[in-house]
Design goal:
Elements lengths: L1 H15 L6 H20 L8 H10 L7 H7 L2 H13 L2 H24 L3 H17 L3 H18 L3 H12 L21 H21 L1 H13 L7 H17 L1 H7 L3 H21 L2 H8 L4 H13 L3 H25 L12 H7 L1
Helix pairs in contact: 1-7, 1-17, 2-6, 4-5, 5-6, 6-8, 7-16, 7-17, 8-9, 9-10, 12-14, 12-15, 12-16, 14-15, 16-17
């Protein structure tokens, strides 16, 4: 537990004590932080509830090319191909995890650059759950999340074809990424009507084909999550945090529209959050909503750091920063102390630490 807390303590210190650096120095700091997080996530050892399951799948994967087509269709094909290459190159499960960490962090960093949000602000929001729990445990979905964050960044830049390309790739790392496709129901207004229609038709047919190929997987999800009403203890709290971001967005909508041009997409994410909350309450199957909500996490990353810029005076800004940091410290500590699977994340261990101990 101490390792997780120490990491977030450093992030919090950077969040409050804002030292100005030259652009070149700031870039080096960003590289160091990303490298640290890549090692933290990618070289973890026996961390997460799914560690044994991922290791078992990796160990039993055939290294023969003639078995590869069957293996690709049996699970998420992008991830299986990555496992196959790592096994061929002798990189082990750590090579797979490290690559997935790099993809996740690339999407995260690209999104920050597009939104023009400081890394320390984004990490204050993202570390307690998205990085510490999701990236550090849900390997396939974290890779898919990184790709959808890249897709979202290009979407916000108006580069829709490139965005769709990364979205399609994300589907091959975790099939739940299909949910991100709802983003394209709200295309930027500067995109022409014909291009919007072409994107919609392409995505519709791509989604149908993908669904038909993997329909057994989605049928299993329906049985597992809905029929058996699978619940996650902290799911409603995490959905409510996204709901708070939605409320804040609407409260500050006038100032937001004056400063940024992306209100419509975050409003759309907020509406979907409300739908997920109502569906979770109605069906009492919160785990599915919790997993789908991960694709809407950029709402928090965008809204909460930007609210400070919309506050009028320094005392309000200072109070808001304390409130924001305290809230996410609460998220971190509640998860570390009370989460059902917290013991699978503790104590934190890493391949480098294992090598030093030998």
């Amino acid at each position: 537990m101490a390792f997780y807390i120490a990491t977030y303590l450093l992030i919090t210190m950077a969040f409050f004590f804002r030292i100005r650096f030259k652009a070149s120095t700031r870039k080096l700091i960003h590289i160091f932080v990303l490298l640290y997080l890549a090692v933290f996530i990618g070289l973890r050892h026996e961390v997460s509830a799914d560690w044994e399951a991922y290791l078992y799948h990796f160990d039993r994967l055939s290294i023969y090319f003639h078995d590869l087509p069957h293996e690709l269709l049996a699970w998420d094909p992008g991830y299986v191909l990555l496992e196959f290459l790592a096994k061929k190159l002798g990189l082990g499960i750590y090579g797979v995890n490290f690559f997935c960490a790099l993809v996740f962090l690339s999407g995260f960093y690209k999104l920050l650059h597009t939104l023009d949000i400081r890394m320390r602000d984004a990490l204050t929001v993202a570390y307690p759950y998205l990085i510490m729990v999701v990236a550090n445990g849900y390997t396939r979905q974290s890779c898919a999340l990184g790709l959808t964050m890249l897709a979202l960044a290009f979407y916000l830049d108006g580069k829709v074809p490139r965005s769709v390309g990364f979205f399609i790739i994300s589907l091959f790392f975790h099939k739940s990424a299909l949910f991100f496709g709802i983003t394209y129901l709200k295309l930027p207004s500067r995109i022409s009507r014909w291009k919007s229609l072409a994107v919609f038709i392409f995505l519709f047919f791509a989604a149908v084909v993908f669904f038909l190929i993997f329909q057994n997987y989605y049928a299993t999800l329906y049985q597992y999550y809905f029929k058996e009403k699978m619940n996650s203890s902290g799911a409603l709290i995490r959905i409510m945090i996204n709901l708070v971001a939605t409320v804040a967005l609407f409260v500050f909508r006038n100032g937001w529209k004056r400063n940024w041009e992306d209100f419509e997409i975050w409003k759309w994410y907020g509406i979907i959050t409300c739908i997920i909350l109502l569906a979770s309450l109605y069906t009492r199957a919160t785990t599915m909503g919790d997993r789908l909500l991960l694709y809407l996490y950029p709402l928090q990353i965008s809204v909460f750091p930007r609210i400070e810029k919309l506050l009028a005076t320094k005392p309000y800004k200072a109070f808001y920063k304390v409130l924001l940091a305290s809230a996410y410290w609460g998220v971190l500590l509640v998860w570390l102390l009370f989460a059902d699977h917290r013991e699978d994340w503790m104590p934190y261990n890493n391949l480098l630490l294992q090598m030093l101990q030998q």
